[in-house]
Target: SMP-30/gluconolactonase/LRE family protein
Amino acid sequence: MGKTASRQPTVVLDGFSYLECPRWHDGRLWVSDFYTEKVVAIDGRGHAEVIAEVPGQPSGLGFLPDGRLLVVSMRDHRVLVRDASGSLAEHADLSGVVSGVLNDMVVDDRGRAWVGNFGFDLMGGAPLRYTTLTRVDPDGSVAVAAEDLGFPNGMVILPGGVLVVAETFAGRLTAFDIGEDGELSGRRVWAQLGPTPRTEDVGEAVERLEVAPDGICADAEGAIWVADAVHNRVLRVAEGGRILDEIDVGTGVFACMLGGDDGRTLYLCAAPSFAEHERRPVREAQLLAVDVEVPHAGLP
Model:
């Protein structure tokens, strides 16, 4: 394993509540700030523009083939679409197929979206429960795409149509083949990052996880960068689970995205912790960046 502690991430911008779901698009990094309920786009000079305000709390972001932005609205179980004028409308209502707060999302080049959900009341201290992944088709129809996932979180689509889902509380990345009709098949473990905790107690699970994969992004060599939500680091992981690289961030890191003009800037969503009661009243979250060698590939 090539550990690279000498590479110190630098601060791009700070003063946020809790950043998640970064996406590089059209020369800027687009990111959700949970507790200010804003989607923000940040350029290479650190200038930020508020793109949308989402009272239901924004999370996963993605783009339709025509360039319109899709935004997960977590608490009311909806996916919203932003038109050219900047107004938001409902794209899909997931309340009939999910009960938990919505989470991250990935959108493919046909406009199909896969959306995760918490599956249980994480912030309220409920027992850990596995849950589903939902597919949203371009016409807004919804269907359960996969079941029995341990907190489906960040997702990527690798070249060739392979969907990889980070299962945070299972400590693994799980892959599916995407069919022409959008159906998922060939479920398999892409990388097992330590033993899966066998407990319903979230605190115990967190203590046992060797890696807690949160947000992820893919590079041009087929590796996946993984934000480890409990160990203050990002890992570059090969299929099969070998750790190719590690960057110590020095604080909590919950999502990552390759971007910049050459795709070699690894952006990091950092904060001291993830608990809502700790993050909501303060503005301690930062967007960090570090240069890496292999550029971005795949989606998002």
